[in-house]
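Box 3.1 A note on notation
Throughout this textbook, protein chains are presented in two layers. The first layer is the amino acid sequence; the second is a token string describing backbone geometry. Keep the layers aligned when reading.
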Amino acid sequence: MNNPLKPEWANGRLHMEDVSAKPSSLHQARAVARVFIPEEARYAVFREGQLKDDVRVTAKIAAIQAAKNTHDLIPLHPKGELNYVEIDFNVLDGRVLIEAAVKAVTRQSLAMEALTAVNVAALTIVDFCREFKGVAIQESRILFPENRDTDIKITTHVMVGVLVISERILAGLGDDNAGRLLQEGFRSHGFTVNHYSVIANDPDKLAEKVQAWLEQDVELIITLGGNGVGRKDITINTLEPFFDFRLEGVEQSLLNRAQIVYDGFVTQRIAVGKIGKSFIVSLPLDEPLAREALALLAPNINALFEI
């Protein structure tokens, strides 16, 4: 029996939407996209806090051309003539906010034209910075029309950094199996993992590295190591004073996993806190616990950024 809730294309019967019976009227749509430019790449596209003229003009032309040719880029999208396309750029805190407005007397919605415009403008800016790591399109979405049946929104996954605190691994005397597991695990879930370092048990180096990653908008920083009660276990004592607050519920969930790994007797400490817009998860350097933490965090971490 056919499922009445499935659209026809779900059964392989693709077709263009027939808009021939609809009357032509004025349609409008607006969309926005947001591009993050890391500190080291900003000189390539910014001058005096704004987009360089050549970058802005190139991205604007690319966006207008893309909007006019949306039907060539998206299969089955009806061809239509746009009467107006405008692209605006604003720069704030290393992010470029792109807004597109499109208008036409037509029979169809123009949401896809507006969304195509901002995404191609964003890709053009990214292309100017292609030699640098960390450049990312963080979001693109429809602003208008607001009365759509479905919300069209494209959002990149959280940017993750894995920081290992271990003099032994730093000296090449051990393998970082836990750190590698977390990197591969988060990538397999679609997250961006472009930040990874191994440092010594040094409070100053730890604070300096975390600060640098925060400035690069790493949204989830996972530290491994230095979580015991010995003299060299400096991680939590170093980071906790910078927390805006701790997330005791997440900490308890991780401790529950740790009890399973350590047969109920946990001597290592675990901390989860928020600094600005980023979350810090501080774990012991332990491969089995890293595996348990990945299983807990990967499916749920996006919920923290929706609060």
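Residues 159-306 form a domain with the Molybdenum Cofactor Biosythetic Enzyme; Chain A fold (CATH 3.40.980.10). The longest helix spans residues 111-128.
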